[in-house]
Amino acid sequence: QKYFHSLLVGATGTGKTVCVQSAISGLEESTWTSLTINMSAMTSSGKTQEIIESKIEKRIKNKFGPPGNRRMLTFIDDLNMPYVDTYDTQSAIMLLTQMISYSQVYDRAALEEKKDLIDILFTACMNPKAGSFMV
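RE: above sequence
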């Protein structure tokens, strides 16, 4: 069975978050776990990585995933809210892009070490009329 990352876009009050939370509550607990991250203008890439890494564990060598050989649905709410820095980037979103595109992240304490991410699925919601438009 294949799973895909998703992005829900809509105006305030259209039920994006409620729809995703309903889907999360319907997941089978023996095979799925979930993580919700609410983005804001103060969300940094370091904090985002710290939150995600707090919910995963080492499986084999450099492979990391949710505990108990389950899959993890990571819900990012208000994806476009992190602050745009002086380089016109949003570091938290760039970190998520790296995680989704390459299924890996670098260890911040030892940059030569890569952590391969397995069994992590991302879904996000955003309001196209709020926050940054650089997603």
